[in-house]
DNA sequence: GCCGTTTTCGGCCCGACTGTTTTCAGTCG
């Protein structure tokens, strides 16, 4: 079965190849925009095709692309892609990843000098054959060589929590500059994506040059890639790229909106502006030369008759239509969270005791937490067998007697065995307030068996929540193969909740799966999987992810009061 | 290649920076 991601990848590859071939840029854009649409869908294209639904109803997909998708689904390959791959040497795509080298220059280098690989490029640059070409000079040649040599050490996307450290540090540095009135980190950081490609920092100040000079002095900067009056790009020692933009106060809202993106969202809204005879850029909304809005984001949205849309939703995944119809979700906020339903103690692989975790939960302002240590199968983590679990339950009962207006719920993170059975007998699971189940082994089962495994686990009436349902690690591993639609529908049928694991390295479910779960009516638990007291604060990342999945307070299990929670857990 | 409350043809979001150029193409976000 063809996954959405595979279809999107095929279209993106084809777009890259067509671009190098010098195809019409709008045709290239059409492939990219279709890929983006497909990636953001919360339904499987394959399922749509099975149900014979019309793909041309999707944004940016017309008859031709619908046919191509059908071919891809039916045969597993795309003739147009295979043909383009025949015509363009495979090394050329890699060359476009070099900073300052785009499709046009790569094509010229190939046509004129036969350069089709990184090595050939470096050699040509060293032999000064590139600067001999028209349109290329000494500086370009030198830059190409530098960037080609940097290519291997360039970081990919940076995890949000790591980006946050750099962003906060630089934000504080810039705030110390004279004449700076405001500093905001925009881009995918503000949209709270799980990873960021670079940081976009917006500065309100009158004198751009002074800000740029100040930025360049920050100790974490490795080099300044470019620097103008309103824009500078720097590379940090960590490998992260940062773009700093300086705008005047009257353009702050327009610039914030503009640099928050996503690009797909911005393009869609700017089209709406064009249809109204308006132009939106980072300085404001304009009718001719007259600025109609720009000071605030709300005013910019108002010019195209939209309410303010939360950054987390700005992915062009239906938020604009929802806004037009007055159907935007009232997104959950961190204050809505009343407890944390996944954490470990020193009984297994946690770093803090039961009492310390309870105290940490109280300090977080919660009404309850659940202690969910590992089960026996996870020997590496000193997992609990029935006897040790019962000892812990007794200890929790004792602790609860001393606590006021705070409850420690009795739970476990029980392993799901290969056949979908659970790692502890039903009689001990029956003594718990709730049962969290998850997969920690045999990630390599095929899609059907892995899906069945989760469904069988959910068949057990004691199971309340499936933790980190896909097993993926951000920037680490993809997670096991699953038919998410079946998992989500299975959870809905059985009244089982799915988790958003708030560990920044997990964020599992991911945003589109969260939305899929919401649409199926599955209740979500946002939980930190804390292994130390300091990690309870990771809840914020989980709430971010929930917002990206359009969740409202009522969609989330642990916004409930304790009484409501117990009721919701009944299956 | 997509799309239509100006359009079924002729548009398609918008601007900063750089280098190689004497007016702009290429790249990037």
UniProtKB/TrEMBL annotation:
GO terms for cellular component: cytosol. Its cofactor is Mg(2+). It comes from the Bacteria. The keyword Transmembrane does not apply. Residues 339-418 form the Polymerase/histidinol phosphatase N-terminal domain. GO terms for molecular function: class I DNA-(apurinic or apyrimidinic site) endonuclease activity; DNA binding; DNA-directed DNA polymerase activity; exonuclease activity; phosphoric ester hydrolase activity; zinc ion binding. It holds the Pfam family HHH_5. One of its GO terms (biological process) is DNA repair. Residues 2-315 form the DNA-directed DNA polymerase X domain. Its EC number is 2.7.7.7, 4.2.99.18. The keyword ATP-binding does not apply. Its main location: cytoplasm. Keywords: DNA damage, DNA repair, DNA replication, DNA synthesis, DNA-directed DNA polymerase, Exonuclease, Hydrolase, Methylation, Nuclease, Nucleotidyltransferase, Sodium, Transferase, Ubl conjugation. InterPro entries: DNA-dir_DNA_pol_X, DNA_pol_B_palm_palm, DNA_pol_lamdba_lyase_dom_sf, DNA_Pol_thumb_sf, DNA_pol_X_beta-like, HHH_MUS81, Hlx-hairpin-Hlx_DNA-bd_motif, NT_sf. It is found in: Cytoplasm. Residues 53-72, 93-112, 128-147 form the Helix-hairpin-helix DNA-binding motif class domain. It catalyses: DNA(n) + a 2'-deoxyribonucleoside 5'-triphosphate = DNA(n+1) + diphosphate; a 5'-end 2'-deoxyribose-2'-deoxyribonucleotide-DNA = (2E,4S)-4-hydroxypenten-2-al-5-phosphate + a 5'-end 5'-phospho-2'-deoxyribonucleoside-DNA + H(+); 2'-deoxyribonucleotide-(2'-deoxyribose 5'-phosphate)-2'-deoxyribonucleotide-DNA = a 3'-end 2'-deoxyribonucleotide-(2,3-dehydro-2,3-deoxyribose 5'-phosphate)-DNA + a 5'-end 5'-phospho-2'-deoxyribonucleoside-DNA + H(+). PANTHER family: PHOSPHATASE YCDX-RELATED (PTHR36928:SF1). Repair polymerase that plays a key role in base-excision repair. During this process, the damaged base is excised by specific DNA glycosylases, the DNA backbone is nicked at the abasic site by an apurinic/apyrimidic (AP) endonuclease, and POLB removes 5'-deoxyribose-phosphate from the preincised AP site acting as a 5'-deoxyribose-phosphate lyase (5'-dRP lyase); through its DNA polymerase activity, it adds one nucleotide to the 3' end of the arising single-nucleotide gap. This is DNA polymerase beta. The gene is polX.
